[in-house]
Amino acid sequence: MRTIRRGGPYLRVADPDWEDPLDGRYAAERGGRWNPPESFPVVYLTSSVAIARAYVLQKLEGHPYGPEDLRTGPVLVHTNVPEDRYLNAVTDAGLRDLGLPRTYPLDSRRRLVRWRRCQPLGLRAWKAGLPGVAARSARADGEELAYFGRRKLRRGAVRPFEDWFWTDA
């Protein structure tokens, strides 16, 4: 499996009521893009505020309200991820090795690649002992990191919704 070096500052979009927003057990139960339900813990992280914002907008799609209507919204949790070699779903070569299209996160018909196609790849990376998956964002230009939570992440600054969502930083 092709890997890519990643680490450093990342962001977690979290419900303000979550006791521990950097705990991957919820994703272990429910599953996500890179892990099937009832599998292993994953903390899904973004590399920028723009991707975090796009995530929130995607979650609100189809609802009769938008972010401007929220009294309170998700917080943004800062963390530092250990530098390591993560499964590479970023570069064309990494995507080719994984059997994903060069156009990832979109397929040849310009639709999002389905979770069921990515989950077995994440499971392979987990079984191989990798710390996670670095991937092109499925929401905006940039990258996301599926951190497998083998080591606990430390919580940094927590920014309230009204502080981070409407700013450029």
Features:
6-stranded mixed beta sheet, alpha+beta, 169 residues, 25% helix, globular
Can you walk through the features of this model?
The chain is an alpha+beta fold and 169 residues long. Helices cover 25% and strands 25% of the residues. It has one domain. Strands 1, 2, 3, 4, 5 and 6 form a six-stranded mixed beta sheet that branches. 34% of the residues are buried. The mean pLDDT is 94.
User: What proportion of the residues is helical, as a percent range?
Assistant: 10-25%
For the residues shown, what is the average pLDDT? 94
* Biggest sheet features: 6 strands, mixed
Number of domains: 1
C-alpha geometry: globular
Give the helices and strands as they follow along the chain. Answer: EHEHEHHEEEH
- Tell me the distance between the termini: 35 Å
Number of strands: 6
Indicate the radius of gyration in whole angstroms: 16 Å
Low-confidence stretches: none
In terms of DSSP E residues, the strand content is: 25-35%
The chain-level structural class is alpha+beta
> Count of helical segments?
5
In short:
With 169 residues, the protein is of the alpha+beta class. The chain has one domain (3-164).
Question: What is the topology?
Answer:
Layout: E1 3-14, H1 25-30, E2 43-46, H2 49-60, E3 75-89, H3 92-98, H4 115-127, E4 132-136, E5 143-147, E6 158-159, H5 161-164
Parallel strand pairs: 3-4
Antiparallel strand pairs: 1-3, 2-5, 3-6, 4-5
